[in-house]
Amino acid sequence: MTFDGHDELSERRRNKLKLMRFDQDQQELVITEKPQETFEDVGGLEDVKKKINLNFILPIKQPEIFAAYGKDVGGSILLYGPPGCGKTFLARSIAGEIEANFLHIELQAILSMYVGQSEVNLHDIFERARENKPCVIFIDELDAMGGSRNQMRQHHDRMLVNQLLLELDGIQALNSGVFVIGATNTPWYLDSALRRPGRFNHMMFVQPPAEQERELILKLKLDSKPVGKLDLQQIAKQTKHFSGADLEQLVRDAVERALERTLETGSIQPIEQTDLLQAAKRRKATTVEWFSTAKNYATFSDPNGDYEGILAYMKSNGLK
Amino acid sequence: MVTELVHNVTRSRAYQLMEWKRYKEALDEAMKLLQEDPDDSEAYSLIALIYFRQDEHDHALHWCDEALRRDPENLQAWYVKTLSYYDSENWKQFDATIEQAIQLDPDEAVYYFLLANRKLTRNQYEPAKQQLLVALELDPDQALYLANLSYIEALLGDMEASKQLEKEALKRDAESKTVYLYLSWSADRRGDDQAQLLYLKNAIQLDPVDEQIRKEYLEGLQKNYFFYRILLAPSKWISRMKPWQVFLSWIVAWIVFRPLVVVFIVLYIIAFWLSKLLVHVKVFGWTFRRHK
Lengths: 320, 292
Prior knowledge:
By secondary structure, chain A is α/β, with parallel strands linked by helices. Chain A has helices spanning 8-16, 46-61, 63-68, 87-97, 107-114, 122-131, 142-145, 155-174, 211-222, 232-237, 244-265, 273-282, 287-300, 308-316, and strands spanning 20-22, 29-31, 75-80, 101-105, 135-139, 178-184, 202-205.
């Protein structure tokens, strides 16, 4: 099923797949982006970065050492954690670190594959990645593509999971230099076959930013905006469990308040400490709800100890 | 032609998103269907279904009524409406709605399953069994119905039939939390504490977010303690008695063995709380915040 170029649905799909461009003549998929972000741009998450360094980055920089241990360059990791905590940014920084091409598959693209009206084919994406090595394929919302096959009633749902498994196995057998990073807010919905060795066997918990990181995020978000005398440390203290996205929203709220004053007075009004404090009071951390669900999975449905990081984080941060 | 295709694609996307439990996005897609055709009864019933999946029964019922106003024979709307009344335990409305729903769609096996459960709420085991047999005639491979029937057979005292149906249910579906939940009740009724705990363990691994499953699993773990099991034994006899028999036995026991009855009650209370504490520490550690 195809649609013409003016079709609204195709337009929406293309918008979401902006990192890929289809050549008009040859329907060629061209990878257009090499992210500039590196680990230096990622605040905190030291353990995660260390693990990624060992499994992903060092094998490229010092291949001979890893070859001696029979370890290939490439592989896959799964980033999981509450929404808005920087999984996508971390994936981009990994691609930036290894100077790899970056292919981003989002929910809308996966959905297109499901409803069977897209020229984007999972196998093609993996093939193109293999042709453009080193390449990072980032599958955002992996649970949508690799959800439990038992819960998938439709035949074509299972087909896509099976295809994904096939492609991941292919990486191990045929391709060095192709990296697959999956990200999900709900790792418990993933098909267990996806977590076997050679597939997404490295699971990394991307936790909400710590106090110092929150202060840094606030500083970055307020950068180049008119501000008064701010004590961001105080705001960071009062925004426990806030995700990066929550902090962004908080800054937006504060900006709105300053804008209102500006319109009232007719002159540019800076963002004040009270604007941020008020915004922090009104907003609640969206991660809390995620943790209350995650805790149940970590406590009752975690035979392999995959979610131990969640319980450890909750304990050390006084989360119920 | 193209409009129709887009409409179908939007509908497929909405269903897919709903299966992925992305309800907000699914609702957005379903609303697009309404924008395209404000009289699309199927779109209204789809929105009702999305709300129903989120346990928002009032919203689900509202959208069902909107769908039925446009098409009184919209089967999906009747289905969601019946299930919404059932889930919210609005029995008066449920009884009225399911009758109409069956008239319109007599081959929908779920309705007979619901009627069986309705009979169970009134302790009418034999009529419940008859309803389930109808459901199984329509859908013989449905593990959920087999598991429920296993439970009913145990309630009716036919333990052999109950065990046989348990095997049949597991053969057909070993990945359903609801099947495991029914089988755990069935095992409990047969006095098989080990099987009960095993089924609850399977159920909780499949869905630890379900509060009922968590509660029953923790209660099941309590029975692991011998001292608690011993004190639970009389309750098993009691559960097989009729209410008047229970009342009479308590009166007689109170008159004849008063001190023993008092000792039993005290020991039972101690055993209950001690086993509860031990289970809590085993599962959650030494933390005593309320687990939600």
